[in-house]
Amino acid sequence: MERVYRVLVVDTGPEFVEVAREAAELSAWELYLASEREEGIRKAVSESPDLIIVGYLEPQGEAFQLHRHLKENPETRDIPQVVIDVIPQERLSKGWQVNEGLKMEAEDYICQPITPSEFAGIVDGILSESRVIDTV
User: Fold this and answer.
1) Cα–Cα distance between 8 and 134 in angstroms, integer?
2) Under CATH, what is the fold of the domain 5-135?
3) Cis ω for the linkage preceding 113 (within 30 of 0)
4) 95 contact partners, CB below 8 Å, separation of at least 6
5) What is the pTM of this model?
6) Most Cβ neighbours (<10 Å): which of 26, 44, 72, 126?
7) 81, 122 Cβ separation under 8 angstroms
8) DSSP structure string for 58-69
């Protein structure tokens, strides 16, 4: 029996959450959602996801604080992360700051817009890499 992988998406944007839901339907992983930093931290610990997607959280800087907390916490530091940035038109007011981006330890950095099939492919690729690591 093949293992079912868990993906936690932490994002406040309804558009990206819908993309994540559709992507999960295209793939064989379970989707968990959180819409704020503290909820994301709780679910990262309680659900033990195989991958965490860090998207946009308000106010600006919350997503980076979440990323940093997850990387510093012994319970979550080894969980791979993918960062989803906002669309280019919103980057100045909502996007990741350059200095934050340089400090990140993420498996991938993706800019919106992204289709569900593109997102599913990225997630599946990262999970495939972890499957190889799990079996070694």
Assistant:
1) 19
2) Rossmann fold (3.40.50)
3) yes
4) 60, 85, 86
5) 0.87
6) 44
7) no
8) SSTTHHHHHHHH
CA gap 70, 79 in Å, rounded: 8
Q: Report the sign of the C-alpha dihedral through residues 30, 33, 37, 38, in that order.
A: negative
Nearest to 23 by CA among 127, 130, 118, 125: 118
Bond before 74 cis per omega within 30 degrees:
no
Residue 96 is predicted with a pLDDT of 53
The residue with tokens 């799990």 is: 134
Measured in degrees and rounded to the nearest 5, phi and psi for residue 78 equal -95, 0
Question: 43 near 70, Cβ under 8 Å?
Answer: no
Per-residue pLDDT tens digits for 79-124? 999 988 777 667 655 555 545 554 678 888 888 899 999 999 999 9
